[in-house]
């Protein structure tokens, strides 16, 4: 095993374990036939090149990566409605299997770019053959609309390396506004959407029973 593989192994384990645990939350809501505030969960270990880019941008020394780069292990939880986000964060706060060390609310305080999301940085204990290793992981909680915008902006950012042409910049700002309004509109008709979804899942169960 080379140095990077050894360094990243506990992060990989943490992402795998957390993905199962966070997806388990969704399954529990489904079993109780209640609206799941969690639509889907994804996770990844940051690629080495991105770790190095971020370290050099922030002036972080290689020996300080584990403490200074908080999102080497990254999880995302997508919700249908903005109000679901606070509920999910509260569920995370109540858990006993990790410790929240920081929360960043980019929903009440959106970033200059237009980015909106709620970030929770946790300290997660990974059990290794050499004992327990506590590592940092970042859980991003966002709506489907916020995720759509962030995914597109992220790929454009990769293409333009942060130096967007003015027209693209303006369009991204307008798209961020549109995503914000979409979330607002969906919240307004939340009750109707949930009734329709409950009706649909009952119908599906009837078909399975038949
Ligand atoms: P990737 O490829 O997703 O891993 P800080 O030191 O706290 O000010 P830091 O460490 O960048 O800053 O933390 P922050 O602000 O919580 O952002 C970490 C991650 O949030 C980013 O990781 C992105 O995933 C996401 N993010 C933050 N701002 C934006 C944005 O303007 N647009 C998009 N699309 N995503 C954003 P990375 O390493 O940048 O990228």
From TrEMBL:
Q: Which organism is it from?
A: Jeotgalibacillus soli
Record's family? Belongs to the RelA/SpoT family.
Matches recorded under InterPro entries: GTP_Pyrophosphokinase (IPR052366), NT_sf (IPR043519), RelA_SpoT (IPR007685)
Q: Name one GO molecular function term.
A: kinase activity
Q: Which domain of life is it from?
A: Bacteria
Identification of the protein by name: GTP diphosphokinase
Q: What class of enzyme is it?
A: transferase
Q: In which pathway does it act?
A: Purine metabolism; ppGpp biosynthesis; ppGpp from GTP: step 1/2
**Basic and acidic residues bias located where?**
204-210
- Give the GO biological process terms: guanosine tetraphosphate biosynthetic process
SMART domains given for it? RelA_SpoT
Q: Which UniProt keywords apply?
A: ATP-binding, Kinase, Nucleotide-binding, Transferase
How does this polypeptide assemble, per the annotation? Homotetramer.
Gene3D superfamilies given in the database record: Beta Polymerase, domain 2 (3.30.460.10), Nucleotidyltransferase (1.10.287.860)
Which Pfam families did the record assign? RelA_SpoT
Q: Which residues form the RelA/SpoT domain?
A: 43-164
Supply the SUPFAM superfamilies for this chain: Nucleotidyltransferase (SSF81301)
Q: What is its EC number?
A: 2.7.6.5
